[in-house]
Amino acid sequence: MESNVTGPTPEAAADTLKALSTDNDRLSQRRVPWVLLAGFGAVAAWFVAAAATTTPRDEYEPPATLWLALAVTLTIVHLIQKETGIRFPKVGTKAPSRS
């Protein structure tokens, strides 16, 4: 069995675990309103319906639905963060450091 010498330090792991338990406590005390969660489904249905009803022709211009759906989704995410106090993690991973 190999040891992971590039892994997080015990202090960093303890801090992450503490942050997770804090988020867990917040979630158990607060509930996300169902309207906001239903909003995600509505935005997805709206986007799929817009794509399904598009009929490309010679003078086709892509609809602005994608950008509008993205703006509505980001607004819903903001409202969920405001309601629960929990931040969504950043997207992507950290690049490995070169030594």
What does this structure look like?
- This protein has 99 residues and is mainly α.
- It is built from 3 helices and no strands.
- It has helices at residues 10-29, 34-52, 65-84.
- Helix 2 packs antiparallel against helix 3.
- The longest helix is centred in the N-terminal third of the chain and has 20 residues, at 10-29.
- The protein starts with 9 loop residues before the first helix and ends in a 15-residue tail after the last helix.
Brief summary:
The chain has 99 residues and is mainly alpha-helical.
Distance between the termini: 23 Å
Largest sheet composition: none
Strand content: under 5%
Secondary structural class: mainly alpha
Chart the SSEs and their pairings:
Elements: H1 10-29, H2 34-52, H3 65-84
Helix pairs in contact: 2-3
Keywords:
99 residues; 0% strand
